[in-house]
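ARCHIVE RECORD
Type: protein–small molecule complex
Small molecule: NAP
Source of inputs: curated submission
Record status: active
Notes field left blank by submitter.
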Amino acid sequence: MVLDAPQALDQTGVLVILRLLCHDNRKKCLRIKMIVFRVVFAAFLVCATVYLITIQYWLPTATPPAKTENCGTGLEIPPIGIGTWLSERDKVAHAVEFALKSGYNHIDAALIYKNEDETGKGIQSAGIPRDKLWVTSKLWNADHRPTEATIAIQKSVQDLGVGYLDLYLMHWPVAFVPGGNRVDENTTIVDTWRVMENIARSGLTRKIGISNFSKRDVETIMSICQVCPYAHEFETHPYLQQQEFVDYHRDIGVKVIAYSPLANTNPTYKGNTKLEPILKDPFWVKLAEKKDATIAQTILAWGHQRGTVIIPKSVHEKYIIENLDALNINFTETEMKDIAKQDKRVRMNNPGKKWGIKLFADLDDPTQLDDDDDKEL
Ligand SMILES: NC(=O)c1ccc[n+]([C@@H]2O[C@H](COP(=O)([O-])OP(=O)(O)OC[C@H]3O[C@@H](n4cnc5c(N)ncnc54)[C@H](OP(=O)(O)O)[C@@H]3O)[C@@H](O)[C@H]2O)c1
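STRUCTURE (tokenized, with ligand):
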């Protein structure tokens, strides 16, 4: 077929021009096709390189993709909750019912506390509408694998009698082999976080979060999460302030839930440190007098004012009411600075040694294993 120039221009496609140029010479035609192919391929390589460079150097400084559906959205966690660790089975139902009827709307529970069924009875007796209540529970270490995790959250929801949880936490960044307390080296926190994400998608909990993580562990989860942690529950109080760590969570949009907010008041911590009970600490005694409040209220008020969610545990009506009133106490900037100086950087709760795991590695008062001691000698 022979085309004249006007016909070629009319049909501006490359193939038409090629045919026009080489219709009578097969070798010449092949050469031209090779040249065109190389030009197109080179252009493709240039475009791909520019695209990759753009992704690598520009996008990280832009707004991250909207994968953080769990961060800071929806119903907010109430500023104070009632703790239930070591609450006796025959006392916790009344404590929870009394707390809810007195104005609390937030309960901190966990499967490993072995009292969620009794806690649930307290919740039912209080008769608070479900959507006015915040209930947190936690995935125990032996339940990190998918099947165990599904059974575990179903049990917590059933025992608590709430239909769904508001927050489900990975209790520790440590997996045990199911059914025991031997560390499961094959299950990472990323594996477990994927399980947590699927639990969140199942609707059994509104939000998911973490507990007792080091900063590096938090960073790991933040870098891989599709559903991001809503909250991080960890030990923090005037004797273990970890202000930088608290500020870091504010910056990344993860709420801090302060456990053991009364420092060494929990009797189970007796003997863990040489510190005198905080409720007898002259600094806090004096500050409480100044504020016309109890010492416990004054300590809890500081936890509240620094922006952490506080979850004091008590099974006594007097303390339960007293602790709620902590929300009405305020400190001046100077008082907050004075309290900051009271930090002892001492941790009360550290089962890492028992488990042979270095917990809190980049935080104050991390786990010291025996082999660390050997190295130091
Ligand atoms: N995620 C975790 O790994 C983790 C770890 C630890 C704790 N937590 C959670 O955090 C909650 C609170 O921590 P915690 O139980 O260790 O310690 P806490 O709440 O700091 O202290 C509890 C102790 O303080 C006493 N108390 C409470 N209010 C008081 C007041 N106004 N005056 C004097 N004493 C008062 C309680 O007494 P009575 O009980 O005798 O009334 C109890 O002995 C736990 O219950 C649990 O829900 C979570």
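CURATOR ANNOTATION: The beta strands are 82-83, 106-108, 134-139, 165-170, 205-211, 231-235, 255-259, 309-310.
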